[in-house]
Design a protein that fits this description.
Residues 22-65, 548-583 are annotated as: Disordered. By secondary structure, the protein is an alpha+beta fold. A hairpin with a 6-residue loop joins strand 8 and strand 9 (131-139).
């Protein structure tokens, strides 16, 4: 009887324990409440939790979790006495060895990293725009900066709990090889969040972590690394022009235009006197506007991180990427230091006129052909003065673009589509793609007007000329190709100054025709060659070339438009130059 009673009591206790255990199971990616009331996110399968007291020296209660793997074996998970994020099957409840970034090696590692999250951003495929993951910039207590990465499948687990500037600890991670193109930190190894990683807030105030660390380059270093796609460095200097406006008190930014074009051009001068065009794209442009407005006085100093040096318009330029951050005046210590220097060196600050360094190199038609034949030549822009001999007939003088991005639209069954925007229905707008026969004193060649360059030559947009023709000829069908308009024919005999692009197709020998991205006004071309700020490529061409900004993305727009120009030279575009249709 005693044995039977003991057995029944033991069975009852076991049943109660199992019932209590089942009531505390949590789902993998859901937020559960710890005993301290803080949320905990885990990517694990449903687990059972049992509370156990820590020793008397602990500041909070630890939670030991057991999860079932597919082989049925239980794996212990040692929680930290603070917010706990991520982790499936974390190895053992032992204390992890604290590591510094300099100690990280390739492969899976179980050590504990402590760091400040400086910045994080989305990494997307430059062509398909598919999200690749989240990239991060991290700094440890020794001041070492390293790049971090969260794969797309784990973003929802960690991203909602990440705050730039906060301090974290990470256990169980993977040391992966850092990318060699557009790298934002020096170490060749990067910290990748693995399926066993556990991220938690680090609350020990006795450990100091630097706020940030910058890597600055000057004009010569950027010149040496131009168009190479190597490491990305930071740039600081004082502002000379915002857009085409001089930096004066009360300067007002055209926020509507900036939001529409998603870019802003700033001329910046450095300590050593060089002035460069700095292109701010997307979020960097928005951040600049917000900081500019919030500043009590007109800001004079700018710092932009991880800029990409490019040859554009024949001059060295810098372009922001998705990893870039913008700081003004008193935002960070380097801008404060630069302001102090600027106040004591006004003679150096005003030494160089930005109009001089932004002017494209002047060449003849013969010089352009010689440059194309020269081994090692790169895509570049030049200023060339030539006389228009004729408008070439037999090939279309315009193309139908997407009304939003100006990329060439493609014809669907009943609508126009845009591959770049990913839209199955867009409004078509006619844009110039006009081939001109030109000559100077010694040579003859072919120039092709692209986009706004045609309007700058004729004074009329292509869309207006196309619509006028169809309004005057209602009997023709939508697929009819509009003949060369009188506005273009009237330019024959004019001597004009063009900004000409030597494209990849020119360098590869696929075509000798050169793309015109801008036509200078007659009065500017005659003013002793002083171009001032007129040497700025059209919005179309800037978008084509400088679109290499997300993760150092490839020139999708440039390639597609150059290809369209080449096909136009060869007479293959006649079926595409149709009437612009809506939808």
């Amino acid at each position: 009887i005693f044995s039977a009673l003991f057995y029944l009591k033991l069975k009852q206790q076991f049943s109660q324990a199992m019932k209590s255990s089942s009531n505390t199971s949590v789902s993998g990616d859901l937020i559960s409440k710890k005993r301290n009331g803080k949320g905990s996110v885990s990517s694990a399968e449903p687990i059972n939790r049992t509370d156990q007291p820590r020793d008397s020296s602990a500041k909070a209660v630890s939670v030991v979790s057991m999860s079932k793997k597919s082989n049925g074996k239980a794996v212990l998970c040692s929680d930290v006495p603070m917010r706990h994020i991520g982790g499936t099957g974390v190895s053992s409840a032992k204390t992890h060895e604290v590591m510094f970034f300099k100690d990280v090696r390739f492969g899976p590692q179980e050590g504990e990293l402590r760091f400040r999250l400086i910045h994080f951003w989305e990494a997307r495929n430059p062509i398909k725009k598919v999200l690749i993951g989240i990239e991060m910039l991290l700094i440890d207590e020794q001041g070492t900066v390293i790049q971090g990465f969260i794969p797309p499948g784990r973003i929802d687990t960690y991203l909602p709990h990440m705050i730039a500037g906060s301090i974290y600890r990470l256990t169980n991670f993977y040391g992966s090889r850092s990318k060699t193109v557009y790298r934002v930190a020096e170490p060749i190894v990067a910290i990748t969040f693995s399926w066993t990683s556990v991220l938690s807030v680090f609350e020990d105030s006795s450990v100091h972590f630097p706020e940030d660390r910058f890597r600055f380059n000057g004009y010569e270093e950027f010149e040496a690394g131009c168009d190479l796609g190597g490491d990305l460095y930071d740039y600081v200097g004082h502002i000379k022009l915002v857009g085409e406006q001089a930096l004066t008190a009360g300067l007002v930014l055209d926020e509507v235009e900036i939001a529409s074009s998603r870019r802003l051009m700033v001329h910046v001068q450095t300590h050593d006197g060089h002035v460069m065009k700095l292109y701010l794209w997307d979020k960097a442009a928005t951040d600049f506007c917000e900081k500019f407005k919030a500043n009590g006085n007109t800001p004079s100093v700018i710092l932009v991180t991880t800029v990409n040096p490019k040859r554009f318009g024949g001059a060295l330029t810098l372009s922001s990427l998705s990893s870039s951050r913008v700081f003004l005046d008193l935002d960070v210590q380097p801008t404060r230091d630069y302001m102090t220097w600027l106040g004591s060196n006004t003679d150096v600050a005003n030494r160089v006129n930005p109009d001089i360094v932004t002017k494209a190199e002047t060449v003849t038609i013969g010089d352009l052909f010689s440059y194309i034949k020269h081994e090692g030549s790169k895509v570049a822009w030049f200023e060339c003065t030539a006389t228009i001999d004729d408008v070439v007939h037999g090939s279309p003088w315009y193309y139908i673009s997407c009304g939003g991005c100006k990329t060439k639209a493609t014809k669907g069954h009943t609508t126009l589509m845009c591959k770049k925007c990913g839209k199955a229905e867009v409004t078509g707008v006619a844009e110039y793609l006009t081939k001109l026969s030109v000559y100077d004193k010694n040579d003859h060649g072919f120039f092709v007007l692209l986009g706004d360059a045609g309007r700058e030559l004729t004074g009329k947009p292509a869309s207006e000329l196309v619509e006028r023709y169809f309004e005057a000829n209602e009997s023709v069908g939508d697929d009819h190709m509009v003949p060369v308009p009188q506005a273009l024919i009237d330019t024959i005999g004019q001597t004009r100054t063009f900004i000409v692009k030597v494209s990849k197709h020119n360098l590869e020998g696929k075509t000798r025709s050169l793309t015109v991205t801008k036509v200078l006004p007659l009065e500017a071309a005659a003013a002793d060659g002083n171009l001032e700020e007129n040497v700025i490529a059209s919005a179309v061409e800037e978008t084509l070339q400088m679109g290499k900004r997300v993760n150092g993305s490839s020139s999708e727009h440039e390639g597609s438009t150059d290809a369209a120009v080449k096909r136009s030279f060869d007479g293959d575009e006649s079926e595409e130059a149709k009437r612009a249709k809506c939808g």
